[in-house]
Amino acid sequence: MCVTDSVVPNPSSSSSSNHPAPLKLRQVFFITGTDTEVGKTVVSCVLLARAKRLGWSAFGVKPITAGCATDTAGKLVSEDAENMHRYSSVDIDPMLRAPIRLPDPISPHLAAAAAGQVLRADRVVGQVRAALSTRADLVIVEGAGGWRVPINARETLADIAKQLQKPVILVIRIRLGCLNHALLTAEAIQHDGLSLAGWVVTILDTDQDADYVSAQIQSLAERLRAPCLGILPFQETLDIEALADLIRLPGEEIAVG
Ligand SMILES: Nc1ncnc2c1ncn2[C@@H]1O[C@H](COP(=O)(O)OP(=O)(O)OP(=O)(O)O)[C@@H](O)[C@H]1O
Ligand SMILES: C[C@H](N)[C@H](N)CCCCCC(=O)O
Ligand SMILES: [Mg+2]
Predict the structure, then answer these.
(1) What total number of domains does the chain contain?
(2) Residue 2 lies in a domain
(3) Is 55 annotated as a binding residue?
(4) What are the coiled-coil residue ranges (predicted)?
């Protein structure tokens, strides 16, 4: 059995060419992952590309970036935010799409301390809300690392998500150990009072046994109480538009008659 067929509805059958455009609702999703480097930014870009294809206006926000690049003028640049911007149809100010930019590629609480700053969830949320005042059908807010990554001595990325009160999309990089990480994260999201709008699988490690990968995805589908929105394969050369064929947005199936 092909897990891809059984778990994920074919996006092209639910939404595109010969169906009316889906109902446009303003939707904001918080993107978290089972870890850092699991594909959150790529998934965010794919969701934005998918939205654009459906005719939805959309943009992405990266509230905290730890590990910024430096541009020629010496300014810190969030590559995650700039990548999302590339697939956005709504242009928002760079300061709004990446309000907190830290140089060190480490946990935000430590990166902030190294930069002589103290982050506060309520202030970060204020900055995200400023971005959310821009109109769009879809806004993607990408976290940093996983759900309980510290932002200061007391708070974590989850406090930002909790204050935002937006549904969460969980990105799961398939590898040995991801079942535990995914189930714990889903449990924590629920414990924090937020809903899991869906989950996306990324297959970034090419040396895995295909049958075991399928069994892991099936195991996730049997345990996570949310829809699988897509299974994204490894691409030698990243092609976001091609990946947008393999994903669907929560609510995409709400077609207007
Ligand atoms: N489908 C894919 N095929 C090939 N490479 C991919 C794919 N998805 C992601 N990658 C690569 O995997 C790496 C991690 O992806 P990404 O930057 O999206 O992770 P992340 O979860 O956003 O990390 P962070 O926690 O730093 O924000 C990147 O180099 C990215 O280009
Ligand atoms: C630097 C990295 N790419 C992310 N921006 C931050 C990841 C923090 C992970 C912290 C941890 O869980 O140990
Ligand atoms: Mg990222």
Answers:
(1) 1
(2) no
(3) no
(4) none
CATH number at residue 53: 3.40.50.300
Where in the sequence numbering do the catalytic residues fall? Answer: 62
Please indicate, yes or no, if residue 121 is contained in any of the structural domains: yes
How far away, in angstroms, is 18 Cα from ligand 3 center?
34
Assigned domain for 5 exists: no
Q: Which residues line ligand 1 (CB under 6 A)?
A: 33, 36-42, 80, 144-145, 202, 204, 232, 234-235, 238
> Using the 8-state DSSP alphabet, how is residue 92 labeled?
-
201 lines ligand 2 (CB under 6 A): no
DSSP class of 226: S
Per-residue confidence in pLDDT tens, the chain, 257 aa: 334 444 655 565 444 444 445 556 689 999 999 999 999 999 999 999 999 999 999 999 999 999 999 999 999 999 999 999 999 999 999 999 999 999 999 999 999 999 999 999 999 999 999 999 999 999 999 999 999 999 999 999 999 999 999 999 999 999 999 999 999 999 999 999 999 999 999 999 999 999 999 999 999 999 999 999 999 999 999 999 999 999 999 978 653 33
The verdict on residue 42 lying in a domain is yes
Residues 6+ away with beta carbon under 8 Å from 23: 251, 254, 255, 256
- Other beta carbons within 10 angstroms of residue 210's beta carbon come to 9
241 is in an annotated binding site: no
80 annotated to bind ligand: yes
ipTM above 0.90, yes or no: yes
Domain with 92 in it: 24-246
Q: Is 163 exposed, middle or buried (0-12, 13-18, 19+ CB in 10 A)?
A: middle
Q: What spatial distance separates the first Cα and last Cα of the chain, rounded to whole Å?
A: 33
